[in-house]
Amino acid sequence: MSVAIKIDRLMARIFELGKIGALPNGGCKRLALSEEDKAGRALVTGWFHTLGLEVHTDVIGNTWAIRPDRHGSTEHPIVMGSHIDTVGTGGLYDGNLGVLGGLEVIESLIDAGVQTERPVAVAFFTNEEGARFQPDMMGSGVAQGELDLAEMLATVGIDGMSVSEALDAIGARGDEPVGALKPSAYLELHVEQGPVLEAEGLDIGVVTGVQGISWSEFAISGQSCHAGTTPMPMRHDAGVVAAGIAIEARAIAQDFGAPQVATVGRMHFAPDLVNVVPEEARLTVDLRNTSEGVLQKAEARLFAKAEALAAAEGCTISRQSLARFEPVAFDRDLIESIGQGAAELGFASRRMPSGAGHDAQMFAPHCPSAMIFVPSRDGISHNINEYTAPDQIAKGVALLAKVVLAQAGPEQILPDRQQPATAQGIPS
Ligand code: HGY
Ligand code: MN
Ligand code: MN
């Protein structure tokens, strides 16, 4: 049994949501708990209400909408989730596809008059990206007890506002408690955000798990002085230490080889003037690896080098952890079901780990969880040119629908939508 998804309806919603926070040259910027996020939440929640779903919001703004099962229960739904916040150079698909694809599956069930044995839900989680407030996967991490609510509410973002203040500024704080959403299974459709599926000409990524993530912010203090008059041996140049840490991060990725990756995404000097030796420097380092042991080795090497560079320059240095998640494996049976479903639908697929973090990794320790990837053109994401073609999206959503039905079945067609039964029973 499968339901016919309407790709045009889904693409229209993706483009509609993409207008909120639209950037001049394409893409969108909808940072977590911003005015743009407020507008995005209103649009998507409006679609939830229009379908008559039971909508809930919790104390950190996570929002989910449940379609009761054929017995009227909304307990322990099969949840299709992701996020609608974006990075500053966001595309239209990262996160949004998982939420709007889940909504499309539910609307297709309604269209077909299919009642399920278990309730089905669609959800978006607060601040998956971690761009404005660290860590990432904040909302889903709190919802699943992986992150402490009070600590997260007190977290101050890169613009100086706390999560709690930002929640109230856009009226996103709900009354459902932490842990109110208890899925019986969690599924997330997402763009791959890398080059593999496109390079191998595949339709579907059957995601086996998510690699470990380590985000650090280093603060280095030196001494400002005149760029022209101060002899080199006298300097305590915080900027040079920061630059050395960035070079070391790249060297670690090169020496360790794939899948080790390292990124310096933010770096600031003070007083940030052409003729003043930097007194202060701050930078972030994002390290990731599928192996927890190797990730720890990468951290140890980076942290030791940072201390040595600071000591050699006569600077002080401190490090704050902004995010630290161990690698997560997804549910074997769900992975099997996704691979099997892809084959039955005639989609070419492969198993692969996720390089990016996702809300699914917060659910994995608590309920059967897995992800479906669709290809990313040129393998890019967190870039305004992020793109996945509608026919590729349609395959991902059709597979999501098939796997959800397998989890939420056995299904029954409502009497008023009975189709002419074939000799063997209800037509597939
Ligand atoms: O950083 C990540 O992997 C995700 O986009 N939050
Ligand atoms: Mn994402
Ligand atoms: Mn992202």
Please provide a written account of the structure.
With 428 residues, this protein is of the alpha+beta class. The chain folds into 2 domains: 7-210 and 328-413, Zn peptidases (Aminopeptidase), CATH 3.40.630; 212-325, Alpha-Beta Plaits (2-Layer Sandwich), CATH 3.30.70. It contains 12 helices and 16 strands. The strands form 3 sheets. Strands 1, 2, 3, 5, 6, 7, 13, 14 and 15 form a 9-stranded mixed beta sheet that branches. Strands 8, 9, 10, 11 and 12 form a 5-stranded antiparallel beta sheet that branches. It has a two-stranded antiparallel ribbon with strand order 4-16. The structure holds (2S)-amino(hydroxy)ethanoic acid and manganese (II) ion (MN) (2 copies). Residues 128-130, 136, 356-357 line the site of (2S)-amino(hydroxy)ethanoic acid.
- Strand tally is 16
CATH topology of the largest domain: Aminopeptidase
CATH superfamily of the largest domain: Zn peptidases
What spatial form do the alpha-carbon principal axes imply?
Answer: elongated
Class of the largest domain, according to the CATH hierarchy?
Alpha Beta
Number of domains: 2
Largest sheet: 9 strands, mixed
Spatial gap, N to C terminus = 5 Å
What is the average per-residue confidence, as pLDDT, rounded to a whole number?
95
Question: Element order, helices and strands?
Answer: HHEEEHEEHHHEHEEHEEEHEEHEHEHE
- Cofactors and ligands: (2S)-amino(hydroxy)ethanoic acid, manganese (II) ion
**What's the CATH architecture name of the largest domain?**
3-Layer(aba) Sandwich
Structural class: alpha+beta
**What is the helix fraction of residues, given as a range?**
25-40%
Radius of gyration over all CA atoms, rounded: 23 Å
Number of helices: 12
Which parts are unreliable, with pLDDT below 50 for 5 consecutive residues or more?
A: 412-428
Strand content is 15-25%
